[in-house]
Amino acid sequence: MNVYHVELVRGGPEEGGWYYQSGSPVESWEVTLLPRTTQEAEKAAWVAWCEEQNEGEPSLSSVLSRGLYEVQIEDSAAAHYPKERPFYE
For residue range 61-75, what is the model confidence (pLDDT) as tens digits? Predict the structure, then answer.
């Protein structure tokens, strides 16, 4: 399970400008070794933390956005994404 700080990043000026999501790891841990009830409790705690941090923050699509926190269930440790900057096609 991983927690990320997610932001919209300007990709380029094509077609009036385009953006993509970029995530920076905040916390990462392997939950497969934990009992199921503990996994669910850990996830609930981090989801609540993210909601608290995001409270009152504008959505990612707003020019005022400073990013939002989110929990993602993944099989690997958290890593910055995307690995490579996308390009306009």
Answer: 998 999 999 999 888
